[in-house]
Every structure is written in structure tokens, then in C-alpha cells.
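Predict structure. Input: DNA mismatch repair protein MutS, 878 residues.
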Amino acid sequence: MSNVTPMMAQYLEIKAQYPDALLFYRMGDFYELFFDDAVAAAEALDIALTKRGKHLDQDIPMCGVPVHSAEGYLLTLIRKGFRVAVCEQMESPEEAKKRGSKSVVKRDVVRLVTPGTLTEESLLEARRHNFLAAFATVRDKSALAWVDISTGEFHVMPLTQVRLGPELARLAPSEVIVSESQEADLAETVSESGAALSALGRAAFDSQGAEKRLCSLFSVGSLDAFGQFTRPEVSAMGAIVEYLEITQKGKLPLLRPPVREAEARVMQIDAATRRNLEITHSMNGGRAGSLLAAVDRTLTAGGARLLERRLSSPSRVLEVVQARLEAVEYAHEQTRLSADLRAALRKVPDLDRALSRLGLDRGGPRDLAAIRNGLEQAAGIAEILPDDMPDLLIEAKQSLFGHDELLDLLDQALIAEPPLLARDGGFIAPGFDAELDEMRQLRDEGRGVIAAMQSQYQEQTGISSLKIKHNNVLGYFVEVTATHAEKMLSEPLSDGFKHRQTTANQVRFTTIELSEMETRILNAGGRAIEIEKRLYDSLKGEVLSRAAELAQTARALAEIDLATALADLARGEDWCRPRVDDSRMLLIEGGRHPVVEQALRRQGGEPFIANDCALGEASDIWLLTGPNMAGKSTFLRQNALIALLAQAGSFVPADSAHIGMVSQLFSRVGASDDLARGRSTFMVEMVETAAILNQADDRALVILDEIGRGTATYDGLSIAWATLEHLHEVNRCRALFATHYHELTQLAGKLPRVDNATVAVREYEGDVIFLHEVRKGAADRSYGVQVAKLAGLPDSVVARARVVLDALEKGEREGSAKPKALIDDLPLFAAAPAPATNAPPKASEVEERLRDIHPDELTPRDALQALYELREMLQKDG
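Output follows.
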């Protein structure tokens, strides 16, 4: 067995404290990884795996990443599911050697990097929150808390374990903390949300200890100042604080006081509905193609995050919705003011995240400059905002004031474009600190300072040939010729000039002033950096002392940005202000799908066909029939998205809209399986349908597409029939129910609040033309064979399908459509169709006449006469 080196012994000791994390062990300009950590990191990062020394007679695997580019490697590792313990050198090698030549540099972990605790600008998406959540249960009651340490947002809400999945889908946290006792039960729910799971001991969730931690964090004697919190809520919040203390090694972020939310205040949207409606992410997981991407015209990172929160959590409080709509309408009407505001907002940096980095001591001069630049724009925006505005904008304007003193300080202290790191220096503006200016002058203009002293000494002594020189032995010294030596050694000059050295032709002296200046010149560079670091700490302290007010300003800027962005969207897309009230109406005239409409425009294709929807008056449920590809799913989704946008406080894509408050939004659209959990497409459909039927209340809006299609015809029809009746009789909610089971249309005559509607099509010479118009009434057929032909099925297959379909329909009319009889009666499929099937149709008389016409040879009178003749032929053929 080989001996363990002192350095490797230190590594193993530190690694033992973080067995579940990769250890980034600082060695000079690199973070090194050893043993299994090195093997895992080398594969994940695609970097070289080497070796360093031996342990237990085995080579020690090693890999490393440069410190200056470590953030990119950290991001890759975090995205691949790793946690990273960052171990820094706590002293310099020179300091370590003072304890002995073989002493190892002191090292310690300064931070545990996890998905929910990222703060670096390069590791985060600027326009999205990065939430860390915690779920706690105390005596059969539960709560969920969540925090974004990069912005300070801190929220908590009571909820049952059943509601955990939908809430995680709403928040999309990066990481969820649970108690070790609940880890096994909650692992699947957390995994489905895409978050990493972290377990803490039960002590972290103790509500009494949690209350003490929270009171200490916010420097209060009681949490009552922030609201009345239940024990599970305190437990969840306390677990988050405990986790932050562990991962941040005691450097807690700047968290805002916790805000208590209630389920009843926001529209409830489950995970399946969010996925089906593609609210913040499209089906492929990206942002492109989502509702958020289609409506996002915000100019600031804070405004973009606020928009995502609003779309993820539409309000159910009428006063809140109205206030938001009034702000957007004001910005919509005041086009010149909105343009000026948006011009200023383009220059607003991310105040929240700059403030957070400063609070965690991970910031730099550039973050101070971001605060300064943000406050400058806030002051400018406050000046152009009038006093006669909606309440929401007035409140925002009031939060922009009160920073003049801090702004003046930062403006005087900082240069225009500071470096990223304080240790680089050069970020304090000239004239701000006299000592710093002097050190910089000595550092940058040492020769000029010495030349000035030389002139001073020449004047003082009257010796014009006196020189100040420098060598590596004496440093700086005053030199005169031997002829002037006697004068320098006599009174009164001898008191100031001390003899140093005599050479053959020269005599050298020094002065106390020159020695001090030499020391200062030699140390000027280092001293300048020290002064700048001290000033940086002072400026950072001034900023952090006003953290609460700055956070309020950041929120106000985000609110103004969102209002003007939604107004710009409404102007550009011709959207209207919806009427929102507590009724059960869903009356939409000329409604459009915001994402599909934009996609059609980008493709330069056909315009989007707008449609009406009327629920809540005479009917609560529309039973929608029509062929595939006609636009049924689009119609369903667009009405759900219009209701969501309205309650998020936005104008909507319609000519007019009257939205009665929607409590829950449910969508069962599209087909997918869940093979990992052993669920077929039909099983997933039934699970999602069951969730709707068990939860929807009378203020819910439900959109259902093709219920029952994944099983046998009569089974599917039966399930769809029973589902429709349950929605009508039990849930009593508003619903759009699309189906291919035309038998269901008969229910409109039996269920008083059900109306039939259909997507219109036109059939021409065996082909189907989609009109995309929704009309009252029922479709008489599904046109499936025609759609199959459009999809490119071989002509022989299409022809065969027509034959089988005709036989089935004839048998059903005659009451004899038995599968066995059908198989016996129909001839077998012929892969090579008869030539007559594909023979070109005979040209009509109109076509023959058109072939004989040569437009270039016709006079205007002849052309008009030919047009009359063609029209007569067409009428005769028809």
C-alpha cells in the first residue's frame, strides 16, 4: 500500500463530507477532480481523463477545468444531473509555507452548486425564473414553498399532496426539497415535473426550528408581520432556508419577505392541460411555438419573468384582472407615451439578479453599474409618466422615486463600463477618491512624479545638474557631481539630504521624502487595487442597505414593461380588450389562435379564419363535429387560450370577448403514451379524462377532443356518451367537446344545455376543401377517406377504402353491416387497381372551348363575348 500524500489526504477528507457531489478541488488556476469524480466528469464534459500518483497501489484518475472558464463546465454538469461542491484555496501558497515547507494550502468548500441555487448570469436564463421549492407535511396537512434566490422571490401556499403535481407544473422549479421520510412517495411526482429531488433530514422540517431560522433571516421577533402561516407553511419555508445555509455555506441570499398565496386566487391548470395548450413550452420542450413565445414583447428580463408568471398563474380575482387590463388599455391608447417608455426600458438591466449576486458576494463592479444604470432609467421613466394613470401604473411610478442619493454616489464612483471582477481594478472613476488618484498617478506616471521632485530639489539646492536616478541596489537616489558635494554636506542641506555613496565623479544622497516616494511608487499598483476593493465593499454596502427599495423599483419597472409590451402586442396583432366579470359567459366573436395565426403569417400562406364561440347563455356545451384537418383542435385550444390571456390581464385575439371568470382550465387534446409508467395512449387519455370529471366545478372551462377513440368503436362511443352526460349533469361546467362519433349529436335534442356545432367543409370532385369555419349544426360524415388521400395514401388504398366505406354505410342503413358478411361479400383487395380507376376524366365542353381560345389574339370585345359563352356552357353543364 502506498502512502497517501498530505494533499491527497486533504482531498479525501473534504470529499468524504460531500459524497453525493462532484468535488471541484482548487489547485492554482484549475479545479481538479480525482477518482470516480474524475471519471464521471470527464465523460460528462468530454474532456481528457489523466492520472496523478497512486492510491492503494492503483493509479488515481484525474481531470481538470480552468478556473476562468469553470462556469460553462458547471452548467453542463448541473444540466446532466450532477451537484458540484466548489472547494477553494483559503490561503496563498506563501502563507502555507510559513507553517512549514511541506504544509498543504488550506482549502474548504465555499459553495454547493445545485440546480435550484444558481445565481451566475451565464448559468441562468435571463427571461425565466429558477425556482427552488420545498414540500412539507405536518399532521396530514401540507404546504409548498418556493424561492428564486437570483431575484429574491419567496412564496408559500397550503395545498394537498394531490395538488403537488399541478403546482409543480405551474412553477416548473429546478429543484424540490422533501423530507427523507417522504422521498420515496414523492419521487415520481417530482420527476414528472422535470425537477431534481433533494432530501433533507426531518430536523430541517421541524416547524419550531424553522420559525427561528426565518425570524433570524428577516431580523424579526415574529412572522406575524408577514401574515398568518400554518405549521406546514413554516416548515416548508424553514427547510428552504436550511438548504440555502447548507449550499451557500452561510452566505444567505437577499430574500424578500414571504408572500402567502391561495389556490382560490389563481386559475387552476393541471400538468396535462399546460402540456396540451403549450402555454410556456411547446410539445417538443422548447420555448418556440408556445403561447409565451408568441405574446412576449417585453424588453426587460424582469418583465419577461413577470409575463411568464402571469401566463402560468392567471388570476381569479376580478379586481386584480381589471386593474391589469386598465393598465394595458391605458398604454394601448397612449401610443406616444408607450413608445417613449419602451425606448427607455430597452436600457434597463436586470436589477433583481444584480442585487442578488451582490448580496451573495458573487457580484462585481458590473453589477454595481447595473444598479446605477437601472436607477438612471427608472428616474427618466418616472419623469415622463403622468399623474393621471390607472392605479397599477401610479403605484409603479411611486416605486421609481427615492434613489437620488444612491444614484449620485454610484454615478460619481463608477466608470461607464466597469470590468467584471473587483480584483481587476480600474472601475472607480477618477476624482472620486484622492488617495486612489494619487496611487494611480504614482503607478502610471512614476517618472513624472520623480521628475517633479528633481525640479524641486534643483530649485531648493540651486544645483541645476542635480539628478534623481535609480538602480537595483540603492533604488532611487539624488546624484550630484563631486564639485557640489561640499555644498550638499554642509548646513542647511545636510539636514535633509543624507549621504549614501561616493564614486569617482559623483556623490549620491537620499531624503526621507524620496525613500517614502520610492516605497509608494513600488507599492502603488497593489495599493490602488486595495483601495478599489475597499471602495467596492463600501458601495456594495450602500446598495444592499437599500435592497428592499431597489427590489420594489425592479418590480415596478417589470410592471411598466409588461403593460407596454401587451399594449404593443394588442396594437400589432389587432387584439381587443376582453370584458371580464363573474358571470358564466364565454362569448367570443372573431376569435383566433395566437400561435397558429402568427405561424401562418410567417409562412406567407392563407390567413387565419376567425370563429365565434358562445357558451354560458342558452348552452354550456358545444358538441363539435367535422373532419380531421378541418381545425377542430385549433378552435378548442384558441378559446381556452383566450380565456387564459384575459385572466392573465392581456388583450385577446378576437373582435370582442366576454369572459366569465374561469376557475379551472382543463384540456384533453392530442394523443400520447407514457410507456415508462406502463400506460398506453388510451390509458393516458382515460387518466386525464378521469381527472377532469372528478375535479371540474361549475366555473371550469373544459376542452375535450376525441374522447374514446383509442379503443373499439362501441366502447369509445359509450365512454364519450357517458362523459358528455357527466359534464352536463354533474360538473355543469362550460365545455367544448369535439368528436367523430356523430351518434352523439342526437344528445343535443335531449340535454338542454348542449348545442351542436360543426367545422364546415366543401367536397369537390371527390376531394375535400377545408373552410375552417365553425357553424351551428352537425356534420353528416367525417371525410376520413378524403383526408387520407390528401395525406398521400396510394390511390389503390384510397379506392379500396371507398369501396369498404360504401359497403359499411349501405349495410348500416339496411341493418345488415355484419363484419363476417361484409368480408364474404366484398372482393379481395387488389394491389394493382384496374386501369379504369386511374383513367383521366373526360374533358368538359368548357375545357375544350378554353383550349381553343388564344388571349393574345382577342380584342376586348371578343374576350367579353368568349366569357359570356363560357358562362352559358357552365350553366348548361350544371
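Residues 834-839 have pLDDT under 50 and may be disordered.
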